Each structure stands twice: as C-alpha cells, then as structure tokens.
Amino acid sequence: MLKHSKQRDAIKNFLADRYDHPTAETVYMNIKKEFPNISLGTVYRNLSLLAEIGEIQKLSTGIGPDRFDGNTAPHYHFICNCCGNVLDLNVNGLEHINILAAQDFDGEIEGHVTYFFGKCPCCKANGRAS
Amino acid sequence: MLKHSKQRDAIKNFLADRYDHPTAETVYMNIKKEFPNISLGTVYRNLSLLAEIGEIQKLSTGIGPDRFDGNTAPHYHFICNCCGNVLDLNVNGLEHINILAAQDFDGEIEGHVTYFFGKCPCCKANGRAS
DNA sequence: GATTATATCAGTAATAGTTCTTAATATTGG
DNA sequence: CCAATATTAAGAACTATTACTGATATAATC
C-alpha cells in the first residue's frame, strides 16, 4: 500500500520540469532547497519507486551515475561523447526493432533500451573532439 | 607504448573461448587458476584497456556489474528479465538506426548501444515469470 | 476527533563495483 | 646486458547505491 508523501511529490515535480536528466545527487541538491532535511537515501528510494511504478524513467547509460527522466512518453536518449550531456531524441520507426530481434530468437522479446552516442549540436558547432 | 603481458593475454584468451559474457569477478576467478597471484585490479585494468583498444566489448546493462564479451563482431545482446542471463543476438537491418536517429538532430550520431529484454528460450519453455 | 497500523522519513552504516596508489617486477628498445 | 618504463600484486580509497534504525507522517478505522 502506497502512502502519499511530500518528499516524493517534490521529487516527481522537480523531474517533470526538467529536460536535462539529472542524477540522484542533483535531485537531492535541488529538493534540499524545499526540504533542507531530506536525506539522499530518501531521494534514491523514491526515484527507484517512481521508476518502478512507471512515473519516471531511469537511465543507466553505463557512463557515470544513473540519471532520471520525468518524461514517460516513449522517446530515446543521446549521450554526447564530448561533454557527457544527455539529450532527448525522438526517433521514428524504431518500434519494430523488437520484431527484428525476435526473428531468429526462440525466447520472447519484451522491450529494448537504446542509447545513441556522438557529438551534441553544441560540441559539433564548437569543433570539440569526441 | 603498450607492452606485452601474460596476464592480459590470458584474460583475452579466456574471453575468446566463452559466450556467456562474464563479469570482471568471473574472469578473475578463472584466470586465478592459471595465475594464482593475479589481482582483481589487474583484471579490471586489462579489461578496460582491451575494451578501449577494441579487442573486447564491455557491456553495461544497467543491471548488476559490467560484463565482457570477447566477440568483437557486430552483434546485439539480450538480457533475460527472469534469470538475468545475457545472450548474443544477431539482428539484421539495425545498421540504419543511426540514420533514423540523425533525422531530426543537429548533432552527430556516431553509434548506438542497444539491449533487448525479455524471456530467454529456457525461461520461456519453463513458464517462468519475468 | 482519537486510535491504530504502517509507509515513509532522516541519519547513518554498510555494500558493490571499480579505480587509484605504491613499491616491486617484467618487458622491450638500445 | 642495461636502462627505461609498462605492468604487476596488494590493498586503500572512492563512487554510487542500498539497507538498517528508531522516529514521524499518513491514512484507515473506530
């Protein structure tokens, strides 16, 4: 049974307003402005809980700490090899790749996770190296 | 300047013979049979080094520790939601998804990482739940 | 509204996975 | 063979995350 909590609300609302996929640490630092006594453990617990019930998305990019996304609409993510920023990426026509994957596979494909890597618009414009 | 090392060779050869994507810990346990004094740090350092120069692949699935794959030929990976095993998956027609991703994107897509999730053939056959 | 059950909390300790440091050893170019 | 230096083993340190604790907040029941 799930009880209401101000801390959890604040975490969810904070993520809903951002598009930069903050880490647990960043969420913690920011929620602290509103709840000076909140603990990092509470932030982690609620982020995990929210991700589990599908109200936020957890991004495990393999580079640094996990990141969180308040946007639950289906979309993909791009990670800049150069500056490390994580950007939203709308990619059409990728829905079918589960079917492609299932072609020669005896198990059951239920979903996939894809991260794109490269140079973000900013780093590309400034000629920075990957 | 890269010097030759027996330990690194052993790690690379070990991975070349396996198709189960072992973790650093598993590599360590096995190499220990041949080099009883090898240290876990050495295993980690060489795995990172080998991945960096492209002689093995590092898999950061977001679930548990990183895994390593001696097969450098392009292929995808499947993670069983049920038993956690990581399987190789050959998926045709996925080469173009970088182009799809680049469509509405001002940066530069250099690559992607995709993990498929679901029920492996074994868990499916045994009717296990995800 | 008071009572009760329990989910959540803050604070902190503990863990997992990985990287770093150090002094000794192994490899290679000259 | 010798000097230069990459690599090693051992263990400390570090980062990210989870677990434990007793206290507090929330919601259901009386």
Write the layout of secondary structure elements.
2 copies of one chain form a homodimer.
Chain A: H1 6-16, H2 24-34, H3 40-52, E1 57-59, E2 67-69, E3 76-80, E4 86-89, H4 97-102, E5 108-119, H5 121-125
Chain A binds a DNA duplex (30 and 30 nucleotides) through residues 1-8, 23-25, 37-42, 44-46, 48, 64-66.
Tell me roughly what share of residues is in helical segments of chain A.
25-40%
Q: Indicate the proportion of strand residues of chain A.
A: 15-25%
Helix/strand/pairing class of chain A, anyone?
A: alpha+beta
Tally of alpha and pi helices of chain A: 5
Q: How many strand segments of chain A?
A: 5
How far from one another are the termini of chain A?
47 Å
Order of helices and strands of chain A: HHHEEEEHEH
Largest interface: A-B, 44 and 44 residues
Oligomer: homodimer
* Main beta-sheet annotation of chain A: 3 strands, mixed
> In which order are the strands of the major sheet of chain A placed?
4-3-5
Q: Can you give the mean pLDDT of chain A?
A: 95
In terms of per-residue confidence, which ranges of chain A show pLDDT below 50 for 5 or more consecutive residues?
none
Cα Rg of chain A: 17 Å
Principal-axis shape of chain A equals flat
What does this structure look like?
The structure is a homodimer of 130-residue chains. A 3-stranded mixed beta sheet of chain A has the order 4-3-5. A two-stranded antiparallel sheet of chain A has the order 1-2. By secondary structure, chain A is an alpha+beta fold. The first copy, chain A, has helices spanning 6-16, 24-34, 40-52, 97-102, 121-125, and strands spanning 57-59, 67-69, 76-80, 86-89, 108-119. Chain A binds chain B through residues 58, 60-63, 66, 76, 78, 80-81, 87, 89-94, 97-98, 100-101, 103-124, 130, and chain B through 58, 60-63, 66, 76, 78, 80-81, 87, 89-94, 97-98, 100-101, 103-124, 130. Chain A binds a DNA duplex (30 and 30 nucleotides) through residues 1-8, 23-25, 37-42, 44-46, 48, 64-66.
